[in-house]
Amino acid sequence: MPTTTDERGRPNYFPRLAAERLDIALCRASALVARAADANAGAQGLGVGQHLVLKMLAAVGPCSQQALSEELRIDRSVMVGVCDDLERRGLVRRERNPRDRRSYAVTITDAGRGRLADAERTVPDLLDGAFGALSRSERDLLGALLGKLLDIDDPRAD
């Protein structure tokens, strides 16, 4: 595939690179979506990780920081800071884990549920902005392909 030039005569190499290197294309697309998610979360007063922690706690109930870290794929050292900040803001609380007294269970508070509800209302606009170039069926296909790549089953299929 020949390299084209932009309006200033500079090489327009990235389209060729992205076509040849799916890994590069996926990394760049991921970075674009991550920036959009960070901007959206920041506008809501939550980091992306904080939003995800609140969402998981609301869905599955109290969890250890380790379980949150593993399930959300957030580094354990980062998870400590995420939970510390959420706790300072009164959005979660840590309590002794009744199943393992050596650990703490993180629990979402009523304030955390309210904050999560506010943040969740903005997600459709975020997704429309980040994936606006894709049709609904293309978005569904992308979700299925990414699930396959990540070796996860689509919970919507149940």
UniProtKB/TrEMBL annotation:
User: Pfam families recorded for this chain?
Assistant: MarR_2
> Which residue spans adopt a coiled-coil conformation according to this UniProt entry?
none
PANTHER family named among the record's database cross-references = MARR FAMILY REGULATORY PROTEIN, TRANSCRIPTIONAL REGULATOR, MARR FAMILY
Give the GO molecular function terms.
DNA binding; DNA-binding transcription factor activity
InterPro entries attached to this UniProt entry: HTH_MarR-typ, MarR/SlyA-like, WH-like_DNA-bd_sf, WH_DNA-bd_sf
One BP term from GO: response to stress
Asked if the keyword DNA-binding belongs to this entry, the reply reads yes
Q: Which PROSITE patterns match?
A: HTH_MARR_2
| SUPFAM superfamilies from the UniProt entry | Winged helix' DNA-binding domain
Alphabetized UniProt keyword annotations: DNA-binding
Which residue numbers delimit the HTH marR-type domain?
Answer: 19-151
Name of the protein in its database record: DNA-binding MarR family transcriptional regulator
